[in-house]
Every structure is written in structure tokens, then in C-alpha cells.
Design goal:
four-stranded antiparallel sheet; Aldehyde Oxidoreductase, domain 3; single chain; alpha/beta; binds uracil; 16 helices; four-stranded mixed sheet
Length: 430
């Protein structure tokens, strides 16, 4: 086979800040998937992209080339419109669990092809696997049947979607190039577009527990992804949301399922409800239901009914007891005052050290492990009042978890004013 390009020329072009042509990008991703271009060459190129960036057209071409490296799902046979949500991930982010049934109960199909957690952010599938019997693996046929019937599915993404991204993501991880916006945007959007949804809402987070620390970088990532989705014919918008403190009162797996069920029962913490409702409104508006009364569907049990059907359809028992930990350790306030800071990242790391997350893809998570928060920033606390409880199956894990949260929260003198900010800070559309 005669190769159409020389990879060294392509690396030099990007090194010297030129834009790559559509043909060069198509060839490059195909040659990398065929293993003709090796990891050393690809590493040099992605570092050049990290340093010199890419134009909107190049990012679009990169995304399309990654989509073409694998299979595409096809939801066109469904009688309902499809709308999906993607979150860039954060600590205590269980929103997919209440959101999917809430949107699906309005007659919309919600395909949530999800992943497992790695590092301090949890994975949706790990959380759901706390439910006895619940299965993440579904065939494409089962996915279609469930979407047509009850309207929603949360399951493992097939390995065939954008396989070039899988290799490239692993390479970025070991070459210090994860944070490049063109690479993040094309990685996320290639999988979402290959999944075949007609509308997509992105939850792009910023703050200590998010992938992007600064709001402006998160905004730039959101704009880039919205443009990519729009250019690919997917109705795409994004909410820019804060991830300075953990979302809700639970970080872990089984405890996050418990909190999600509270939201579906019409209760739950205010921040989880705010974000669930905002994303549900955005998703329903994107498929022509801008006036859907989503709060009513949480209060009157419609979303809960869809949740129960969903859990049963995937082999789970919605009434089964969730796993409980062998050991707990509660930390109390040392003084009276106002809790003014609770940093997301250290609490995420602590939950991970308790066993709620994994360090390697092959590790098992402990479903009962995690953290229950008893106070949130802005709450008044009294000396001796519980601030948070650590849960694990082995008490030996508490010491390193406590190390992680050392200095991660602050109690200011009683009467200190605290400005509660909304979670949703901005909306970005094309
Ligand atoms: N998630 C992805 O799938 N890709 C990235 O690059 C970052 C987050």
C-alpha cells in the first residue's frame, strides 16, 4: 500500500503552526488506528497540538476522522426524538441517575452510554452496580428496545465507538497532553456523535473538583464542543456549572444511588435538584418541549415510576437494600461557626482512598465506601456537630482519607456572611 502522506511532514507542519488539511487528518487517524503511525510519532504531534492549537475546521476534521475509525449507532428507527447529556465529570456527580428517568418520562428517548470511574471522579456505571442484580452490559438490540419502550437506558458504551480515541486518550495520559482543548473536545464529541443522538446537552464543569480549574478555560471548552456538535448536525448546547464543592451530600456509589432516589421522590439536596432540573429543561427544550413541567414530574412520581422500570429492565431490584459499610468514622466541628469552604477535589480523593474509586481499570470498587456530608458551605454549625462521615469496609483506610481532607474545609466565626452561588453559571449555544 502506498501511503498518502509522510507523518514527519505532518508533525513538522503542526510544529511550525500550520493548519493541517482535511486529507492529512483523515490519513493520520486512519494510519494511527492501523498502527502504521507509531506512538512516538503521535506523541510528538499531540504535543505540537497542545502547544500550537487547532482551528475550528481542523478540530471538526479530527472529530470526524475519529468517528470513522469505528462503528456508529443508529437511532433513526425510534419513534421518539433522542437527547443525551454528557458531563465533564466531578465529585458527587450522580446527576445522570435522576435525570435520565426525569427526561424519559416526557416521551423522549435518552441513551446514556456511560463509563466507569478512574481517579477521583466516580463512574455512573459503578454507582448503579450498587443495586443488586443491575446489569450495565446491553446489546445494541436491547438498547433500541428499551429506548422505544420505557424511553431511557444507562449502559456501558460499546468498545466499537471511536476506537482511535481510546488509543489516543491513553497516549495523552502518559505524555502530559490531556488538557489540550482541541484534543478533549474531539475525544468527547467523537464518542457522542458516533452514538447517534439527535440532541446533546453538555454539563461543562469548572473548579477544584473538575477537569478544568478555571471558568474561562471551561467556557472555551464548552464553546468548542457546542460548535463541533452543531457542525455535525447535532442540536447541542452547554451549561457551565460550578464544581468547587462536592455536588449534594454524598460521594461514593451506593450512597449516591440513595440520594438520587431521594431526588426522584421529590426531595434531595437543593444543588442536586437545581442541576437536575436545569439539565432536564435544557434537554427537553432541545427536542421541542420548552414548557415541560419537570418539577411536577419529580413531585408526582412520574420520574420515579420510570426509574423503577429502568432498574427492573436491566435486571435490578429497585426495592433491594443497598450495600452498607463495615466501618464508619465521623468528623465533628471543633468550634461554633459557619462552614465557608469544602473543596471538592480533596473530598473526591478521600472517597477514592476509602475504596469508592479505582486506580487501575482492573480494580474493583467498594460500593458501600464513600463519604456522607452533614453540612454544606453556608450552613451554621455547632462545636461537636457531625460534619461528615467516612465509610469503608476496612478501618485501616480512614487515616489516608483523613489526610486527604486535612485543610480542605473551613469554619469561620459565627455570624460570618456567606454568599451562596447558583450551580449553573452560564448557558452556551451556537
Ligand atoms: N473525557 C473524554 O472522553 N475525553 C477527554 O479527553 C476528557 C474527558
Amino acid at each position: 500500500m502506498v501511503e498518502a502522506f509522510d507523518v514527519v511532514d505532518i508533525i513538522r507542519s503542526k510544529r511550525d503552526r500550520a493548519a493541517l488539511s482535511t486529507e492529512q487528518i483523515d490519513w493520520l487517524i486512519d494510519a494511527y488506528t492501523r498502527e502504521y503511525v507509531d506512538d512516538a510519532q503521535m506523541s510528538a504531534l499531540i504535543m505540537a497540538i497542545f502547544l500550537n492549537g487547532m482551528e475550528r475546521r481542523e478540530i471538526f476534521d479530527m472529530t470526524q476522522a475519529m468517528i470513522h475509525s469505528g462503528e456508529r449507532m443508529d437511532f433513526s428507527s425510534l419513534s421518539k426524538p433522542t437527547v443525551d447529556k454528557h458531563s465533564t465529570g466531578g465529585v458527587g456527580d450522580k446527576i445522570t441517575l435522576p435525570l435520565m428517568p426525569l427526561v424519559a418520562c416526557f416521551g423522549v428517548a435518552v441513551p446514556q452510554l456511560s463509563g466507569r470511574g478512574l481517579g477521583h471522579t466516580g463512574g455512573t456505571l459503578d454507582k448503579l452496580e450498587s443495586i443488586p442484580g443491575w446489569r450495565a452490559e446491553l446489546s445494541n438490540e436491547q438498547i433500541l428496545q428499551q429506548l422505544e419502550g420505557l424511553g431511557g437506558v444507562i449502559c456501558a458504551a460499546g468498545k466499537g465507538l471511536a476506537p482511535a480515541d481510546k488509543r489516543l486518550y491513553a497516549l495523552r495520559d502518559i505524555t502530559g497532553t490531556v488538557e489540550a482543548i482541541p484534543l478533549i473536545a474531539s475525544s468527547i464529541m467523537s464518542k457522542k456523535i458516533a452514538e447517534g443522538t439527535s440532541a446533546l446537552v453538555l454539563d461543562v464543569k469548572f473548579g477544584s473538583g473538575a477537569f478544568m480549574r478555571e471558568e474561562e478555560r471551561a467556557r472555551e471548552l464548552a464553546r468548542t464542543m457546542v460548535a463541533l456538535g452543531t457542525d455535525a448536525g447535532v442540536e447541542t448546547s452547554a451549561l457551565l456549572t460550578s464544581m468547587e464543592t462536592p455536588l449534594g451530600l454524598t460521594i461514593g456509589n451506593a450512597n449516591e444511588v440513595r440520594e438520587s432516589v431521594e431526588v426522584l421522590a421529590g426531595g434531595g439536596p437543593a444543588d442536586v435538584v437545581e442541576l437536575t432540573v436545569a439539565l432536564a429543561r435544557e434537554m427537553l427544550a432541545s427536542v421541542g418541549q420548552p414548557d415541560a413541567d419537570v418539577e411536577a414530574a419529580l413531585q408526582d412520581g412520574r420520574a420515579m415510576d420510570t426509574w423503577r422500570q429502568f432498574v427492573e429492565a436491566q435486571g435490578g431490584d429497585p426495592d433491594a437494600a443497598l450495600p452498607t459499610p463495615n466501618e464508619t468514622h465521623t468528623v465533628v466541628a471543633e468550634q461554633d461557626g459557619v462552614l465557608v469552604r469544602q473543596d471538592a477535589l480533596p473530598f473526591g480523593v478521600a472517597a477514592w482512598r476509602l475504596g469508592a474509586g479505582r486506580a487501575r481499570a482492573s480494580d474493583e470498587v467498594v460500593h458501600a465506601a464513600g463519604i456522607d456530608l452533614h453540612a454544606k458551605p453556608g450552613d451554621e454549625v455547632r462545636a461537636g456537630q457531625p460534619l461528615f462521615t467516612l465509610a469503608a469496609n476496612d478501618a485501616a483506610r480512614f487515616e489516608r482519607a483523613l489526610d486527604a481532607v486535612e485543610g480542605a474545609y473551613e469554619i469561620a466565626p459565627a455570624g460570618t456572611s456567606f454568599d451562596r452561588q447558583p450551580i449553573v453559571r452560564d448557558r452556551i449555544s451556537s
